[in-house]
Design a protein that fits this description.
The structure holds two protein chains of two kinds. In chain A, the strands form three sheets. A six-stranded mixed beta sheet of chain A has the order 2-1-3-12-4-13, with helices on both faces. A five-stranded mixed beta sheet of chain A has the order 7-6-8-5-9, with helices on both faces. Chain A has a two-stranded antiparallel ribbon with strand order 10-11. Chain A has helices spanning about 1-20, 45-60, 80-85, 100-110, 145-150, 170-180, 195-200, 210-220, 275-290, 295-300, 310-330; strands spanning about 35-40, 70-75, 95-100, 120-130, 130-135, 160-165, 185-190, 205-210, 225-230, 240, 245, 265-270, 310. Chain A has two domains: about 35-130 and about 265-330, D-Maltodextrin-Binding Protein, domain 2; about 130-250, 3-Layer(aba) Sandwich (D-Maltodextrin-Binding Protein, domain 2). The N and C termini of chain A lie far apart (about 50 Å). Chain A is about 40% helix and about 20% strand. The longest helix of chain A is centred in the C-terminal third of the chain and has 22 residues, at about 310-330. Chain A is α/β, with parallel strands linked by helices. Chain A is built from eleven helices and 13 strands. In chain A, strand 10 and strand 11 (about 245) form a beta hairpin. Chain B has one domain. Chain B has 24 helices and two strands. Chain B has helices spanning about 1-15, 15-35, 40-50, 55-80, 90-100, 105-135, 145-160, 165-180, 205-225, 240-245, 250-265, 270-285, 300-315, 315-320, 330-340, 350, 355-375, 380-385, 390-410, 410-430, 435-460, 470-480, 485-495, 500-504; strands at about 185, 190. In chain B, helix 7 crosses helix 12 (about 270-285) and helix 11 (about 250-265) runs antiparallel to helix 12. The longest helix of chain B is centred in the first third of the chain and has 31 residues, at about 105-135. Chains A and B meet through helix 2, strand 2, helix 3, strand 7 and helix 7 of A and helix 3, strand 1, helix 15 and helix 21 of B.
């Protein structure tokens, strides 16, 4: 408690100095005047929650914000609770939300009255990659072998795809593979990415499309092997990860004959009807976060795609992503009537 | 022994006095978090997580895991004193803990609960120290069918033995299942029974229900009975700890069984809550004093606590070695590991020796420290019961309301809590059992989704529950538990011949 108090004094002093130095040339007109709520539309411990708490820690450690950032989980209805809360906080600049793909999938799958453009886009922080994983004992080493085995297994299919949640990113990729190959999977939904990776190691499912960070430790331990990454190009990280192989050594799925691209948004939104000044403040804040060594380290550990977008570019990206989710989900029959 | 020298290395990491300070701070905060219903260990750890970024990973995990130990200990306090479980896994502690407090034996119940907790954790940490690599692999054998089998076993070991009318048990349990089904369905991604309401999206949280059913319901009952705590006459005696300890050695068989149940549930990872229910159910059936369970039997307090703490501790093993969290709190700690740049997984034990063994050493010390902290405060907590009811009841209600709000930061949950309070009161008046309702509410969700996952995997073939020796034996054991009363009756008939039957 005492150290927290000391830190807050320190922070107060730092802010005073900062204000004194910056005030003549203050670059942005708006700043938070009270604590900012940081909504996570998912449970504690998941990927979005980790990133939100990481951001909170970085911002606090580097004194990037005068007020505190308070992380609040609103996970009800696959995140719908958090989105509806934001939609209902029109004009409130002291509330931001981190989103994952459920920004698009939840309203489509559940019919909850919400659409991504109800909120004000701030910035894309990163994109999460998806990799096709199989058990290390699987008899194939590349996508071609996998697809051949998948086709050979038809009909009476024994191919089980494990994934996180239902009618969300993992099942959408599964459906996309089905649409591309004409094969059929048995999709088994689990609660979290760690569970899925462990189920794959235990041989209870045949493959998974885990994010890199969810399966990397099992890869390094020689229990799982990656077949391909669902991105348009290979990952940039050349540092060896497992048995001399690096993230960059994993081929893209497209090269293996599986023409599917899927990346998951890790982006920030604000409530509807906030001013441009307020949006600019947060864009600036997250730009500063991206410069910190802690953030760069976190990006590399999770093999993230570090594209950052804001403003019109971000909006255009979102529009395209929303459309591709809608068409994929429509074809798979995932849309609520 | 390699494990032993590693452990000694771990203790030397703890030699840093700052780490000991963090440990005590963590325990203190944890007890506080455990006492406040709603503010569970998972929330508490999540809130403090960002504060630890500037510490070294070893210090950070020592402080955060100490919060976890503290919360495990603290959960028992309000269960015993006010019938309000501070944490899901202390629900089973209320069954006998609160009746004991009402009979003026609060100190004895608290001592039993704390000592039981310590014992459970100690056995589990011994297991982690010496058998970690062997048992870590065991969790991998658990697919959906095996998980369902474990939940089924929990239900069956708890249900097959109730004194209440089986129809009332069934009614209460069905209500629990129905409430658990509200919200998003994880298998199909559809909303169920939300009737277009935004507030119902999050479903009925187990904690909100429990705070209402037990806490508020109890206050309503007490008000009716004349505004007096029955435990008012509690003897407050510093020697109560030693006197209770004298009674404990007689329970060693049950304690070992509970510890085994707890360790098993923590590793598989079923979690601390089912472990506590299952071990209470087993103790009730197999103990000599089983008939007195529910009326204030010390054994009924000790057993679920041993199991809960053993499960809570051993849940760290699948978290560290496989990256699967065995409890919500472990899930948050797992997030912490990633943020500190540690990758949980099979290689953690090899690459991060200092961290892992420092953590294991801190489990030993943290639990000893925790036991000392809570035992010395037993008379203090027991003394709370001497405060007049008219003063303490409003305070409890406020704490309950704050707790219900904290779970999801939702105002409506306070109203939901009050409604559950009335339901709890009516249940008590009509002699319906609350435990099956609570059990169905907390496990219904998980049991349902693992059953449906298993059905997906087997394409609807029920034979999957007997498809290998592991799952087959658990399911068969569960069914035997369910029909135990029937089996014993048949056995009595066969053994005793027709005479006793005629006497009936």
């Amino acid at each position: 408690m005492r150290s927290a108090f000391a830190r807050s004094i320190q922070r107060f002093a730092a802010v005073c100095t900062a204000v004194a130095v910056l005030s003549p040339l203050s670059a942005w007109a708006w700043e938070p005047t009270k604590n900012v709520e940081f909504i996570v539309p998912a449970g504690t411990g998941g990927g979005a929650d980790q990133m939100a708490r990481m951001l909170q820690g970085i911002i606090q450690k580097n004194n990037l914000m005068a007020q505190s950032l308070v992380v609040i989980n609103k996970s009800g209805g696959a995140g719908a609770e958090g989105f509806l809360d934001m939609k209902g906080s029109s004009g409130n600049p002291h509330k931001i939300i981190i989103t994952l793909s459920n920004l698009f999938t939840t309203p489509l799958a559940t019919g909850v009255p919400f659409k991504w453009d109800d909120l004000t886009p701030v910035a894309m922080l990163a994109l999460d990659e998806f990799i096709l994983w199989v058990n290390a004992k699987a008899p194939y080493d590349d996508v071609k072998g996998y697809l051949a085995a998948l086709k050979a297994a038809q009909p009476g299919s024994e191919f089980k795809m494990g994934g996180t949640g239902s009618k969300q990113e993992d099942q959408i990729i599964t459906a996309a593979i089905e649409q591309a190959t004409g094969a059929k999977f048995i999709y088994v939904p689990y609660k979290g990415g760690g569970d899925v990776a462990a189920q794959l190691v235990g041989g209870h499912v045949t493959s998974s499309v885990n994010n890199p960070i969810e399966a990397v430790s099992q890869w390094r331990a020689g229990e799982l092997k990656p077949l391909c990454v669902f991105d348009s190009q290979r990952l940039p990280y050349k540092e060896p990860v497992a048995s001399g192989k690096s993230w960059a050594d994993i081929p893209t799925c497209k090269d293996g004959g599986l023409d599917i691209e899927y990346l998951m948004l890790r982006g920030i939104f604000m409530a509807p009807k906030v001013t441009q000044d307020q949006v600019d403040y947060y864009v600036n804040l997250f730009k500063k976060v991206r410069e910190t060594p802690e953030w760069k380290d976190f990006m590399e550990k999770g093999a993230f795609n570090t594209t950052m977008l804001s403003g019109a570019e971000y909006k255009a990206w979102l529009g395209k992503a929303a459309e591709s989710h809608r068409s994929l989900m429509e074809k798979a029959g995932f849309i609520a009537k | 022994m390699e494990a032993l020298s590693n452990l000694i290395g771990g203790f030397s990491v703890l030699g840093d006095p700052m780490n000991i300070v963090y440990m005590f701070v963590g325990i203190g905060l944890g007890v506080l978090i455990g006492v406040l219903p709603g503010l569970g260990g998972a929330n508490g750890v999540a809130i403090l997580l960002p504060l630890t970024f500037s510490m070294s990973p070893v210090s950070a995990i020592i402080m955060l895991s100490s919060i976890y130990w503290g919360a495990l200990f603290g959960g028992a306090i309000t269960s015993v004193l006010f019938n309000i479980p501070g944490e899901p896994w202390s629900v089973a502690t209320t069954f006998d803990g609160h009746p004991m407090a009402q009979r003026g034996k609060a100190g004895e119940a608290l001592t039993g609960a704390f000592t039981g907790s310590f014992l459970g954790a100690f056995i589990a940490v011994l297991l982690i120290t010496f058998l970690a690599p062997v048992i870590a692999k065991f969790a991998l054998q658990f697919g959906p069918a095996e998980f369902f089998a474990v939940y089924l076993l929990t239900f069956c070991s708890f249900v097959g033995m109730g004194r209440e009318s089986p129809f009332k048990v069934l009614a209460a349990m069905t209500l629990g299942f129905a409430l658990a089904a509200v919200g998003i369905d994880t298998v199909t991604g559809q909303l169920r029974m939300t009737f277009g309401s935004t507030e119902l999206l999050r479903g009925f949280d187990f904690l909100v229900a429990v705070i209402g059913l037990f806490g508020v319901g109890e206050i309503l009952l007490t008000m009716e009975e004349g505004l007096a705590f029955k435990g008012k006459s509690a003897k407050i005696n510093a020697k109560v700890v030693l006197e209770t300890w004298k009674k404990l050695p007689a329970m060693w068989v049950g304690a070992l069984r509970s510890a085994a149940v707890g360790c098993w549930m923590g590793i598989t990872p079923g979690g601390a809550t089912p472990a506590s229910f299952m071990s209470y159910g087993l103790a009730k059936r197999f103990s000599k004093n089983g008939k007195n369970f529910g009326k204030g039997e010390l054994e009924g307090v000790v057993m679920p606590e041993v199991a809960a703490h053993a499960a809570g501790t051993s849940a760290l093993l699948p978290m560290l070695t496989l990256g699967i969290p065995g409890s919500p709190t472990a899930a948050v700690l797992l997030g912490g590991l990633l943020i500190w740049g540690l990758q949980p997984g099979p290689l953690l034990f090899v690459e991060q020796k200092d961290f892992v063994w420092g953590l294991i050493a801190s489990i030993y010390l943290g639990n000893i420290a925790g036991l000392i902290v809570v035992l010395t405060t037993v008379p203090l907590f027991a003394a709370i019961l001497r405060i007049p009811f008219s003063v303490i009841a409003p305070i409890i209600l406020v704490i309950c309301a704050v707790g219900a709000y904290t779970v999801h930061n939702a105002g409506l949950d306070i109203a939901v809590m009050l409604i559950f309070g009335v339901v709890g009161y009516i249940f008590k008046k009509l002699d319906y059992p609350l435990a099956p309702l609570v059990l169905a509410l907390v496990l219904g969700d998980m049991a349902e989704s693992s059953f449906r996952q298993a059905m997906l995997v087997s394409q609807g073939n029920i034979g999957i529950f007997w498809s290998n020796p592991l799952v087959g034996s658990i399911v068969t054991l569960a069914l035997a538990m369910l029909f135990w009363p029937l089996i014993t009756k048949v056995k009595e008939r066969l053994m005793g011949g027709p005479r006793p039957a005629a006497a009936e």
